Amino acid sequence: MTQPDLMSEGINLMLFGMGFVFVFLALLVVSTTAMSKIVGRFDSNEPEPVASRPAAAPQGGPAQDQKLLSIINEAIRQHRERK
């Protein structure tokens, strides 16, 4: 094959490949849009009610809160010392 024939075949292959990818992506967009519309028909716009439970009261008393607070303060102090 000569150089112009190779270029012609290369361009032909490139255009065929780009066309194939374009058609595939177009079909993908169309099918995704169609599926969204189909699912949208069956989906109700009302959110399902969620049963809410009251928040559990924290366990322990003020002594435990003070202990936790001192642990947090110590961790913050150590973190600041490293900088």
TrEMBL record:
Enzyme class of the recorded protein, top EC level: translocase
Alphabetically ordered keywords of this record: Cell membrane, Ion transport, Membrane, Sodium, Sodium transport, Translocase, Transmembrane, Transmembrane helix, Transport
Role according to the record: Catalyzes the decarboxylation of oxaloacetate coupled to Na(+) translocation.
GO MF annotation, one: decarboxylation-driven active transmembrane transporter activity
Protein family according to the UniProt entry: Belongs to the OadG family.
Enzyme Commission designation: 7.2.4.2
Record membrane topology: Single-pass membrane protein
Biased composition (Low complexity): 54-64
Parts forming coiled coils: none
Region of interest (Disordered), residue spans: 43-64
TM spans (from-to): 12-31
InterPro entries to which the protein is assigned, alphabetical: Na_pump_deCOase, OadG
Assembly and binders: Heterotrimer of an alpha, a beta and a gamma subunit.
CC terms in the record's Gene Ontology section: plasma membrane
Name assigned to this protein: Probable oxaloacetate decarboxylase gamma chain
Protein's cellular compartments: Cell membrane
Predominant localisation class: membrane
A Pfam family this chain is assigned to: OAD_gamma
Catalytic reactions on record: oxaloacetate + 2 Na(+)(in) + H(+) = pyruvate + 2 Na(+)(out) + CO2
Swiss-Prot/TrEMBL GO biological process terms: sodium ion export across plasma membrane
Cofactor(s) for this UniProt protein: Na(+)
